[in-house]
Design a protein that fits this description.
The complex is a heterodimer of chains A (about 280) and B (about 260). Chain A is mainly α and about 280 residues long. Chain A is about 85% helix and about 0% strand. The longest helix of chain A has about 30 residues, at about 240-275. Chain B has about 260 residues and is of the alpha/beta class. Chain B folds into 2 domains: about 1-85 and about 165-250, P-loop containing nucleotide triphosphate hydrolases (Rossmann fold, 3-Layer(aba) Sandwich); about 90-165, no CATH class. Helix content of chain B is about 30%, strand content about 25%. Chain B contains 9 helices and 12 strands. Chain B has a 6-stranded mixed β-sheet with strand order 6-7-8-3-9-10, with helices on both faces. In chain B, strands 2-1-4-5 form a 4-stranded antiparallel β-sheet, covered by helices on one side. Chain B has a two-stranded antiparallel sheet with strand order 11-12. The longest helix of chain B is centred in the last third of the chain and has 18 residues, at about 180-195. Chain B is globular. In chain B, about 40% of the residues are buried. Classes of the chains: A mainly alpha (about 280), B alpha/beta (about 260). The interface of A and B includes residues 149, 155, 159 and 212 of A.
Amino acid sequence: MFTEAYMQRALVTALLLGPLCGLIGVFVTARRMAFFSDTISHAALAGIAVGFWLGFADPTLPMVAVSLGVAALMLWLKEKTDLLTDTIMALLLSGSVAFGIVVISLLKGFRGELHRYLFGDILSVGPQEVWLAFAVSAVVAAAVAVRLNALTLLTASEDLAHVSGIPVRRLNYAFVLVLTVVVALSIRLLGIILVTSLLVIPPAAARNIARNLRQQLVLAVLAGALGGGGGVALSYRFDLPCGPSIVLTSVALFLVTLVASRLRRASGKALRSAP
Amino acid sequence: MAEIRFHPGGLAIESRGVRVTLGDTQVLRGVDLHVPRGKIVALIGPNGSGKTTLLRCLLGLQKPDAGEIRLFGEHIGPKVLKRVGYVPQRLPLDRSFILSVREFLALRLPGTAGWFWQSHRRTDALLRDALEGLDLEGILGRPLSGLSGGQLQRVLIASSLLTKPELLLLDEPTAGVDRPGEQSFYELITEVHRRHKLTVVLVSHDLSMVYRHASRVYALNGVICCEGTPEEVMSADSLKQAYGIHVTPYHHDHGPGHHHVH
């Protein structure tokens, strides 16, 4: 069934980005950065609009650039003002979406394009996206492996990380950079609206059945692969929008692990109460 | 009495004229602090006295607006912080992050830095050697977020000791710990102090703990308003300076030697 080249590209990209999102999603959720990631993905809409406006055939570059700019603005406002983090993110999220939609409405002929960026489209994954996904996955996986202890301690407590000699500020910025690039790349498949789900659902599914961080990381990577790969296959088979297919597959996986964890807990209780 | 490492002329903590203003409030108004090496001391003060801010300054988490702090004669930076262990009151851990005790401890020990790739048995063996006497083996597999206050504290102390610090800073160590837990905490700290011969600073608002366990007490209220042996500092006059006029230490049903500020 996966004979078409575009389908193979979409599947390979999903099998690269799904696990990658699962891996960094563990840290994103533990650091309560899901809304942050949502803001970054919605900022991408402004980037796409700017790309169309400036005549880019492929808006990946402006998308990443504007998302990074908004992420930097978010960090700057957080440091320099007394505004609540939630307020800053809501401001930038709605501002970027409104800007993107206004610009795309003013430009003629791009409204159809909007749909595929909002909900994801397997047809939009070109050969260069596959290579980009491959390169980014390799670099990020290696970086996480090398800095796993620092990242874990940072997630447990920034103060402890600082006292242990970890460059907290630098690592925080690097994490935001990685998150922004991964989110921008994943938009092709998942769409702006749903991209954060791949950072949240696989780690949550893993959390249901994991007993420690090592298990959670491994299971989140697996869940990301199953959700991403399964969703692309569903999208192809039933001609469904790609993003929602990936999300529903991941949600199904989450429910399975939830039931599994309940059953395990129930049987554990039964064993303990047995005479 | 155990042998105590003492470096003549070298203080564990030395601060001069440390000032910090947060927002419109002058939290620290010229703190002069001299903590000798090798003792268990207490830094006490009521809420809002600047304890936490001073602790953050000592850890390099807050830059003073004026004044100077030295640890072991050195300016605060990554180099000297290697010699410092910090035991926070709690961890801002999210329940979605299922870090086990074993994994958390392994982060700090050079030999177990590869915990992700090595077997639990190997990690546990290395941790066991490093954590002799801390009695954590039964909970190594438990998630950090599911521990009781006392267990978490024991884990945090263990974690801070893994890097063999010479100075241990503990933030409100008896908050969130019940009475029996408090007793075992003091036994643990006394044992750690005896075994590792380090300087221990207990930062607390609770005078009762100070009285029996610290050899020297520093009372903070924007400035160090009095310091001395616990008996000296517990005298009503100096306490009034630290805690305001409405407080009197008195004995009640905790048994002899326990004082609370009311």
